[in-house]
Target: DNA helicase RecQ
Amino acid sequence: MIASPIPAVSLIDSLQQYFGYSAFRSGQEAVIEQALSGRDSLVLMPTGGGKSLCYQLPAAMLDGITIVISPLIALMKDQVDGLTRQGIKSAYVNSTLPQTEINDIFKRLAAGDLKLLYVAPERLTQAYFLEGLSSLPIRLFAIDEAHCISQWGHDFRPAYTRLAQIKHWFPHIPVMALTATADVTTRKDILSQLQLNDPYIHLDSFDRPNIRLTMADKYKGTEQVTAYIKKRSQDCGIVYCSSRWQVENLSKALASAGINCAAYHGGMENEIRSIVQDNFAKDKIQVVVATVAFGLGINKLNIRYVIHFEPPRTLEAYYQEIGRAGRDGLAAEALYLHSDSDAEKILKRIESNENEHKREVEKQRFNSVSDFIQAQTCRRQVVLNYFAEYTQSACGNCDICIDPPTTFDGLTVAQMALSCVFRTEQKANADYLVAVLRGQTSEKISRNGHDKLSTFGIGQNKTPGYWHAIIRQLIHLGFLQQDISQQSALVLTEASRSILKGEQPLLLAAPRLQKASYWRQSNSSASYDRGLYAKLRVLRKTIADAEDIPPYIVFNDATLSELAKYKPTTDREMLNISGIGPTKLDRYGSAFISLIKEHQV
Model:
């Protein structure tokens, strides 16, 4: 039986009751209403945008069970710990639990004593497990990190491809697929593979405006990272490397410089990795130096910076990794230290893949990272336009915007490039297009008759690097798009029409030397009582240590900031603070009220 829609006023009341929030974030309310009405959905929200609440609140409200498919054990534990302290009964089933405990969980499910059950995709694809679920009053399936289902997704996971069985076993139960990073091709693949029925599709903005995007040339990488972290000695962060060796090498160097850090990579024992992740979540470790193995499932809200010491292989991976910073909505920074030699190493690894199809796909995806590195336009535009969220507005919070390059009237050269895309029937990649523009003959160009085009050779007075820079900017500005399913063929967008017709001016960036602007600090000043905030952090840490949970599960940094600003001294005033509902008020309210009163004496 499918649950009937619930009035919006009930949603707000439930949001306040369970999570202590007085308003929904963008898109959450519509997604939740669709889930409650029994409709399938595909939800794309940025990391930290509130995806989990889209299924957690319906789970709390529905008369039955919500099954959440989650890729990592650590994430399951964190989510269950947090939900339990919100007054929502939850559990997880994974390989860490003995069979007796799993049996007890199923007894609780059958007795109606649980609202949410977290499972790994591998377990949900086992027939005996599905049979066990079939007798339960399941009301919703939520598939987190849904991009893992697609071969085009950057974290492809084979077990996800078998999740279409859900619709076979439970054809009338709504399925909600959620992800933070999926380009157009990956989105189509998710819908196809999961066999969603007339799904509601929510495409939220990918933008995370609180994260400053910064690129800097890496010349003394270890010294640069050390200096950066020491300047932010009170903040937690992640440093990503592409190899296990580099993780070990850099973490040792940082530790010898007196930085409280730990290494994390796939070659370490599971127990050690679990200890590192647990200690990082509980603020016992300041910095984790990691490979992508430290990826999905990082649910720590107060990470203030993410550093890429070496390049990620895809722009999706980059954006998901930096999205682990600033999940509480407060200011954070993503620093990318770039060197050409690092990029060459990644390309060599990609070239060593014997699977030709996979090798070409990986090369095309890494090209988008190269474009990001060499951007002369707003870096946030590069990322948002890559995800088909076209914007021509600069963000004001990246190194390009803070320290802009010089510009020139680029309308004519843009028209040359766009015209050439049109005349090559939108089937040419960047290298081929540049060859045509520069009048270079080849067997393929002659065979296609493109040496007879009016655009053949019109840009012969410019270097290949110049034309590649122009094409990159046109992609970044949303006038061109690369079709990765067609060997990165350049395709005109609707926005390119006005450029081709000369209906609007166009300024493009001239090449420049990259400047490191990551040391610049935000001019905004916090309006809360910093002395009280420091005391609140100590109290939060004391409570969290006593309960053996991460501090953000008690209250996140944004909630502490409001407490330090408004200084509530009654239960009613506490409930007006974002992130504090009745359950958390009962559990923690008196201790924090007492501290605030003491501070004001």
